[in-house]
Amino acid sequence: MQPTADLCDQYGDRVAVAAPTFRAYGARARFAGTVATLECFEDNSLVRTTLEEAGAGRVLVVDGRGSLRCALVGGNLAVLAHRNGWSGIVVHGCVRDAAELRQVDVGILALATNPRRSEKRGAGRRDVAVAFAGVTFQPGAWVCADEDGLVVADAAP
To answer: Among the residues of 52-144, which ranges form H helices?
Structure first.
């Protein structure tokens, strides 16, 4: 995987750089893959359903609308992501079980931690464009994250 700084140098404006609002929680500091998207607010039902599918190296991008009131991903979901072959998870919201997340070989970026679990109402939408941190994540796009940041491109460079 090419470092994000090198991608920016090589591709310039053809890659979008997310605002540096995320903290790393997973054991994998560097990850990349094709984007799968979810939009959900304080309800992680679709997160679980999606992570139960074969990840095939994809990155799940979860737009939780930046809510800091509960977690959308925790230790059990991180293990599920790893077991099913997901490369990473980007959460525009919170995670929990931070100590457990550090032990799971999946890249996980989120805004913060919150020990409160989310609701389970089955609300949300899959495979829709989501926008946060100054970038838009389209299903099927490509994302790369490392210690320097997160970049998005229409396709893998």
So the answer is: 75-83, 98-101
